[in-house]
Amino acid sequence: MAKTLIKNGTVVTSTGRSLADVLIDGETIAAVLAPGSSLLGFDVAGNVDTVIDAQGKYVIPGGVDAHTHMSLPFGGTSASDNFETGTRAAAWGGTTTIIDFAVQTYGQKVFDGLATWHGMAEGQCAIDYAFHQIIGDVNDDSLAAMRKLPDEGISSFKLFMAYPGVFYSDDAQILKAMQVSADTGLMTMMHAENGPAIDVLAAQLAEAGKTDPYYHGIARAWQMEEEATHRAIMLADLTNAPLYVVHVSAKQAVQQLAWARDNGQNVFGETCPQYLYLSLEEQLGASSEEWGTFEGAKWVCSTPLRSKEEGHQHAMWQSLRTNDIQMVSTDHCPFCMKGQKDLGLGDFRKIPNGIGSVEHRMDLLYQGVVDGQISLERWVEITATTPARMFGLYGKKGVIQPGADADIVIYDPNGHTSIGYGEGKTHHMNMDHSAWEGFEVDGHVDTVISRGKVVVDDNQDLGAKGDGKFVKRGLSQYLI
Ligand code: URP
Ligand code: ZN
Ligand code: ZN
């Protein structure tokens, strides 16, 4: 099998950094060695097929993005990245594993939904992928099917307290699903927003002529997120289910998570780059020649962007430091402005919800290191190691150690990345705009290795669809 040596780099893991060489044998990491060392008298550098010099660069585990929605049907259209385009974009940005969401729609059998997602992804992905299961219809049949998900390598399911009439579960359904979660160890993932109340507020705003994208965020007030987060926590406490709250954006929701964790509950949370960097104020001020104030549709997502003035962004960074929030995923769910987001011209309720970020998570979070928000090790932890541990991939993914998959990123702290859609920018997602236009990052993804194969190097895409394989997951490492 082909052997590669990454030499002279600084290997960064969640627990520390050191100058070390990394030997790859085929698809696997064979050894992490003192720089320039021989292995039992064997000259390593002289006996490999390829040597990559990582002098002055960080050698980190490939990113694990635990929340993506390739091709998700939503709001009368489907997310514009499919598994091919979305995983290529992910690779460009140093992410080597995604966990996407298979969907059981209302009235459908869980395993039929899962089969559809396998069909969409198989042979298409440039990097490895796994699935969570969305349960869009909690009933006796789906509850029974959920018990078999671990056999399929699926160890988590998502419920929605939002989106009535689409994915929504009421409290009785949530309670029953959480009982299965407690019995089986499946992680309950929760979209925690009070959907029925939000729909009333949204209708009242629309009737009052407040139809701009900005009002999406006004209708989805932080109280709706705090209330739903609290309710989910109480139902999880009652049933003893592990709970992972997705796309947390309100500081009050974080306080709920911290309170539950302090009480000893197995409650976890993720936030997303958009809640760390973007705000409702910017969305209010957004306007362009082409779209006027509908420009703000680029940032319509749920949970919504929140007011910077109210301190939500600050709370998200702080909670990443204090571990009240354990990790960062993208909730990558891109839609083009033309033909997709514009379905909501004149009525924000019809704008498909979602932002595309799968390509930029590692860079945007590295900027957090540069800005003094998080440490280098914490960067690796929240983008790779914890996602792998949280969702049963650790050992193979999220770590640089012998026996792990050779998913490795060589990151240049002296490089630069100009994020955006336009000429000379880094955008590879299948979108006609970027929600991150103009963001500048003081670092650069130089080389990306996925199970031993170099898939991105020196601004060249060397991957191919079909390189990525489905990965079966075990139960979360955070549970006993
Ligand atoms: O706006 C979002 N988040 N769209 C994707 C669906 C979801 O709720 O995660
Ligand atoms: Zn959601
Ligand atoms: Zn999502």
Description:
By secondary structure, this protein is α/β, with parallel strands linked by helices. The chain has 2 domains: 123 residues, Urease, subunit C, domain 1; 279 residues, Metal-dependent hydrolases (TIM Barrel, Alpha-Beta Barrel). Helix content is 29%, strand content 22%. It is built from 13 helices and 21 strands. The strands form 4 sheets. Strands 1, 2, 3, 4, 5, 16, 19, 20 and 21 form a 9-stranded mixed β-sheet that branches. A hairpin with a 2-residue loop joins strand 2 and strand 3. Helix 7 runs parallel beside helix 8. The longest helix has 18 residues. The protein is globular. The structure holds N-(aminocarbonyl)-beta-alanine and zinc ion (2 copies). The site of one zinc ion has 4 residues, from loops.
By CATH, the superfamily of the largest domain comes out as Metal-dependent hydrolases
Radius of gyration: 22 Å
**Mean pLDDT across every amino acid position:** 97
CATH topology of the largest domain: TIM Barrel
The N- to C-terminal Cα distance equals: 38 Å
Major sheet attributes: 9 strands, mixed
Number of strands: 21
Q: What structural class is derived from the secondary structure elements? A: alpha/beta
The total of helices stands at: 13
Question: What small-molecule ligands were found?
Answer: N-(aminocarbonyl)-beta-alanine, zinc ion
Task: Categorize the overall geometry.
Answer: globular
- Total number of distinct structural domains: 2
Uncertain spans: none
Helix content: 25-40%
The CATH first-level class of the largest domain comes to Alpha Beta
Q: Strand fraction band?
A: 15-25%
CATH architecture of the largest domain: Alpha-Beta Barrel
